[in-house]
Amino acid sequence: MMDPLGCLPRLKELFEILDAKLSEIDCAINNSADPDTDGLFDQSEYYVGIGLVAAQQYLGEVATFSRIGKDKAYKLGPRHRSGIPYAKAINSAANYWKHEAEWWEDLDRMNDSNSKTMIHVGVIADSEHYQLSNFLFALSNNKEIKLKCMIPIITEWLSALSS
């Protein structure tokens, strides 16, 4: 099942746009005496989050139209060395970005699904700080913080859907 909706080129284009912004931020980080205080890591986290939500949307649409269902579809394809399927991890990371503030506001309301989301992101990010950027860095095999590293993962996931 290679891109059944024909949307992968648009996702790639969006990743290119966001990756260009991430490159600008990376340059600023390298030229800053204190990138954390300058808010540069937060900026990077924001653009990574936008890209993760776009990937989540794509995965969700493909899973829905494949008639396999998201729960089953997100278990397919490549996996992190911890065993977590990357499709599920990308979905978790997008949810983390969208809902993290709500969860931290009231940790007592944290449900099992929210806890699993945070665990998936934390295991792959292997960091307690700037988890989405570190998550993406891990997806790129510790090479760079670029959204384009998700394209081979998504492509391999698409292949697993058709198997």
Structural features, described:
Helix 2 (40-65) crosses helix 4 (86-105), helix 2 (40-65) packs across helix 6 and helix 2 packs parallel to helix 7. The mean pLDDT is 88. It is globular, with a radius of gyration of 16 Å. It has one domain (8-162). With 163 residues, it is an all-alpha fold. Helices cover 67% and strands 0% of the residues. The longest helix is centred in the N-terminal third of the chain and has 26 residues, at 40-65. It has helices at residues 8-31, 40-65, 70-73, 86-105, 112-125, 131-139, 150-162.
In short:
The protein has 163 residues and is mainly alpha-helical. It is built from seven helices and no strands.
Could you give the topology of this structure?
Elements: H1 8-31, H2 40-65, H3 70-73, H4 86-105, H5 112-125, H6 131-139, H7 150-162
Helix pairs in contact: 1-2, 2-4, 2-6, 2-7, 4-5, 5-6
